[in-house]
Design a protein that fits this description.
Elements (H helix, E strand, L loop, with lengths): L1 H5 L2 E5 L4 H10 L7 E5 L5 E5 L7 E5 L6 H17 L4 E6 L18 H12 L3 E5 L14 E4 L2 H11 L4 E5 L5 H11 L2 E9 L5 E7 L6 E9 L3 H12 L5 E8 L5 H7 L4 E5 L6 H4 L4 E4 L2 H12 L10
Parallel strand pairs: 1-4, 4-5, 5-6, 6-7, 8-9, 8-11, 11-12, 12-13, 13-14
Antiparallel strand pairs: 2-3, 9-10
GO molecular function, one term: ATP binding
EC number: 2.7.6.1
Catalytic activity: D-ribose 5-phosphate + ATP = 5-phospho-alpha-D-ribose 1-diphosphate + AMP + H(+)
Length: about 325
């Protein structure tokens, strides 16, 4: 199958995540498309596609994290270059969809930036978007092109299962992650609980109570994004106070901003599993609790399914 696909579509990548791009290409038995991405002296992006793409279907992989403004602009320019080179289709693969948390007007006179990003991708020439665990599922509706939002929970659940074999309960760190926790609980065939919290400010969270019994159990905290780590660490502390044994975490996107890594290292969390939708930063490399789980094989399979017009939802349902 890879040989047939290799002769039928091209895979390009921006500069946001070279390791994941290379791993996906290897899984697909492809070489990454030739593209030269540099900077002009004034720091504008200088980009050129170095091979013919006329009439071909292209997949473009770029994660929008760590330097989201730069990587988003780079992605838009690459899409535009491919469209102007007469490509047949541009399937944009965005492991982490930056700006996804800005999906509504939280305050007066604020933008809905996730909608703006959707407009920009469409205007640039994207014909389809493939992404992983959108923070706000309604962002799919911001597009007028097909969007495949696949879920990494099955990949992470497999790793969790190999580390904890009994007395497991899945805990949602807050109300927003209840559905995700329920999905993990269904996969792992166990119960789930919910942490009820009050957010004091953007960095500080106060736990009110835990709805469910974690005493004497191994806890899995499940969430889609870890940014400052305040939510997941406060949930871990609450679980430990309520008598939990081992505490694990499974998160799709690890932003780890500010002192997030330090918080995790000092927290009751024993192991923190995170997929590699976002590159590992220097701050994480010396962490003893954080374990990266590759989603390259999973993402490669989704790309194959998109190209061969198979059901992508079957990957995660």
């Amino acid at each position: 199958m890879p040989d047939m696909l290799g002769s039928s579509f091209l895979l390009f990548a921006g500069t946001s995540h070279p390791e994941l791009s290379a791993e996906v290409a290897k899984n697909l038995d492809l070489k990454l498309g030739k593209v030269n991405i540099q900077r002009f002296p004034d720091e504008e992006i200088d980009l050129q596609v170095l091979e013919s793409v006329r009439g071909r279907d292209a997949f473009v992989l770029q994660t929008i994290a760590l330097d989201p403004n730069n990587y988003l602009m780079e992605l838009l320019i690459l899409i535009d270059a491919l469209k102007r080179a007469s490509v047949n289709s541009v399937n944009v693969v965005i492991p982490y969809f930056g700006y996804c948390r800005q999906d509504r007007k939280a305050k007066p006179r604020c933008p809905i930036t996730a909608k703006l990003v959707a407009n920009l991708l469409e205007k640039a020439g994207a014909t389809r978007v493939l992404t992983i665990d959108l923070h706000a599922a309604q962002v799919e509706g911001f597009f007028d092109i097909p969007v495949d939002n696949i879920h990494a929970r099955s990949v992470l659940a497999d790793v969790v299962q190999s580390n904890v074999d009994k007395d497991l309960i899945v805990v949602a760190p807050d109300a927003g992650s209840v559905k995700l926790a329920r999905d993990y609980a269904n996969i792992l065939q166990t119960d789930f609980a919910v942490v009820d919290k009050i957010r004091i400010n953007s960095d500080e969270v106060e736990v009110v109570t835990i709805i469910g019994d974690v005493k004497g159990k191994n806890v899995l905290l499940a969430d889609d994004i870890c940014s400052t780590a305040s939510t997941i660490v406060s949930a871990a502390k609450a679980c430990r106070e309520k008598g939990a044994k081992r505490i694990l975490a499974a998160v799709t996107h690890g932003l780890f901003v500010g002192d997030a890594v330090e918080k995790i290292e000092k927290s009751p969390i024993d192991l923190f599993f995170v997929s590699n939708t976002i590159p590992k930063t220097e701050k994480v490399k010396n962490a003893t609790k954080i374990r990266y789980v590759s989603i390259a094989s999973f993402l490669s399979k989704a790309i194959r399914f998109v190209f061969s017009k198979e059901s992508v939802s079957s990957l995660t349902n």
